[in-house]
Amino acid sequence: MNRIESFRKICKEQGIKVTPQRTAIFDALEDSRDHPTAEIIFQAIRKRFPTISLDTVYRTLMTFVKIGIAHVVETQGNTKRFDANMEIHHHAHCLKCGKILDFYSADYDNLEVPQEIRNQFTVMDKKVVIHGVCKKCSQKQKDL
Amino acid sequence: MNRIESFRKICKEQGIKVTPQRTAIFDALEDSRDHPTAEIIFQAIRKRFPTISLDTVYRTLMTFVKIGIAHVVETQGNTKRFDANMEIHHHAHCLKCGKILDFYSADYDNLEVPQEIRNQFTVMDKKVVIHGVCKKCSQKQKDL
DNA sequence: TTCTTATATAGGAATCATTCTTATTTGTCA
DNA sequence: TGACAAATAAGAATGATTCCTATATAAGAA
Ligand SMILES: [Mn+2]
Ligand SMILES: [Mn+2]
Ligand SMILES: [Zn+2]
Ligand SMILES: [Zn+2]
Question: Which residues does Zn(2+) bind (chains A, B) (predicted)?
Answer without folding.
Answer: 94, 97, 134, 137
